[in-house]
Amino acid sequence: MTLPLLVAVDDDPGLLRDVERELRTRYAGDYRVCCLGSAGEALAVLRRLAGAGEEVALVLAGEVVDGRSGTELLAEVPRSFPHAQRVLLVAWGHLGDSGTGNAIFDAVATGRMDHYVIRPAPPPDEQFHQAISGSLLAWADARGSAPHTVDVVGETWTGRASELREVLGRCAIPHRFCLADSEQGRTLLAGTGPRTLPLVVMPSGHVLEDPSDAEIARAAGSTVDPDRDRYDLVIVGCGPAGLSAGVYGASEGLRTLVVDSGSLGGQATSSSAIRNYLGFPRGVSGAELARRAYQQAWVFGARFAFMQRVTDLAPEPDGIALTLDTGGVAVARAVVLATGASYRLLGVPALEALRGAGVFYGAAASEAPLVAGRDVVVVGGANSAGQAVLHLAHYARRVTLVVRAATLAAGMSDYLVRQIEATPTIEVRTGTEVVDGGGEGWLERLVLRDRATGTRETVAADGLFLMIGARPHTEWLPPAVQRDAAGFVMTGPDVDAGGRDRAPLPLETSLPGVLAVGDVRHGSVRRVASAVGEGSIAIQQVHRLLAATGA
C-alpha cells in the first residue's frame, strides 16, 4: 500500500530544511514527505500526483512563496486534492501581529486555507507536532479512516442501516458505511459466516448483528441501568450544555448521572468546524468537542446512561424521581434539563421516504463522502447550515444553500457568510424553500419554490441536508414545568411563580429543584459557547439548592 504524502513548499532553503527535518523525523513511518522550493513546481507535482491516483494528506506553505502569499498556493490545492489539509507556516515573530492575523482570518474565511502553524523551533517542538497531528486527524476524519472507526454493513442505504448511521452520528462515534455487495463490504463479511444484516463492526472487531440502540450502547461501554439509584444530580441530555453540567458537577464532587436517548453532543455534532469557540484558534468539529467533553466528565466521575429516554419526572419527599423507558428509575436531589432541540422535519412524504438515501437531517460531517463529485442542496439559515455547506463543498461538485430568509446575514455569523460568498462551488438561493422531490432508490431531484412569486423549479440533486427550525424535546415533561407556546422551558424571571415560597433561581424552572439550560430553555442564545456557559452556571445554582435543603 502506497503511503499518503505530506507536502511542504517554501522558497527559503533553510526554512524548508527545518520543516523537512521535523516531518521526516516524526512521520516517515506512516507518510511520505515531499519538499518543494517553488509554487509552480508544487502545483505541477500536485497535478501529477492526482493523475497518478496518489493521496496527499497535508500541504504546508510559507507565508510568502515566489513573492506571493502562500495562501494563493494553498487555495489551488483542492483542485487536485479536495480533502488535503492546507496549512500556512507562520514565523513566531508574526504571532500577534495585526496584519498577519487579519490575513489569516481573511484566508480562512474565504476558504483559501484551513489552518496555520508556527514554524518549527529546534527539536523537540511538540507544539508544532500537536498542530500537525491535529491536521492529519482532520484529514483522516474526512476520509472515514479516523482511529476507532465503526463499520456498518447493510443491504441498502435505507431502513435500519440508515437508522444505525444516525445513531452513531448522534453519539459522535466515527463510522463509515458500505453496501454488502461492495468490495469493502465483501471484505468485512469474509469469514464471518451467515449474518443478519445490517452489521455493526466495532473497532475491537466485535460484530453486532442488526443491533438495537441499547446493544450498541452496551458494546460501547455504557451500561448504567438505574434501579432507584440515588444521585446528587441527574442531567437529562448530552449536548454541549449537558456535557458542561456533567463536567462541572462531577468535578465539584456531585454524584452525577447523565441520561440521553442516544445523542452525544446534540446538534453540535453536525458542525464540521466551529471556528469561533474560545480556546480553539484552529477550529474544532462539534463531534470532537463532544468526545473530549464526554471523556473529561467520565474521568471526573460522571456516569452516562445512553440509549435510554426519560419519560417522566416527579417530585418525591426526598428527591425527584426520573423514570426511564427501559423501566429504570433514578432519584436525584437536583435535575438539569439539557434536552436541546432537533431539526424540524420537512414533512414532504416523497423526500421522507428517501431518508438515508440522499436525504439527511444534519449529518453533513458523516455523510459527506457519499456525495463526492455530486450536486447537493443544504436547507437552513443558521450557523450549522453554513458550516455544513462549507464542509460539503470539499466533496460535492456543486452545493446549493436554500434559505427561506431574504439574506444570509439574518441568521448566520459574518465569517461564515463571507466564506460562503467566496466559494465558487456554492450557490445561495434566498427566499426559497423545498416543496417536493424524489428518485428511484436514491434522491435524484428536488422542487424549489420561490416564496415571493410562487414559481416552482425542478433541479437535479444527489443529496439533501436539512437543518431547519428547532423543535424542543419537552413533550415528555409534566404540566408542572411551564413552557412557552413553542414548547421551550421557562426559567427564572419568566416563570409564573405564584404559590411558591421563593422566587426561582435564574435557570430554575417552575418545578423547584429542576433547572433548564441550553437550547431547550426559552430565551437561550443558540450558540455552543452559551450552552457550555449555562451548563457551568447551573452547577453553582445546584449547590445553592442543595445547601438550602440541607440534604
TrEMBL record:
Name of the featured protein: Thioredoxin reductase (NADPH)
Domain FAD/NAD(P)-binding: 231-535
Keywords: Flavoprotein, Oxidoreductase
Species classification: Bacteria, Bacillati, Actinomycetota, Actinomycetes, Geodermatophilales
Gene3D superfamilies hit by this protein: 3.40.50.2300, FAD/NAD(P)-binding domain
Any Pfam family matching the protein: Pyr_redox_2
Reactions performed catalytically: [thioredoxin]-dithiol + NADP(+) = [thioredoxin]-disulfide + NADPH + H(+)
Keyword Disulfide bond part of the UniProt annotation: no
GO molecular function per UniProt: thioredoxin-disulfide reductase (NADPH) activity
PANTHER family: THIOREDOXIN REDUCTASE 1-RELATED-RELATED (PTHR48105)
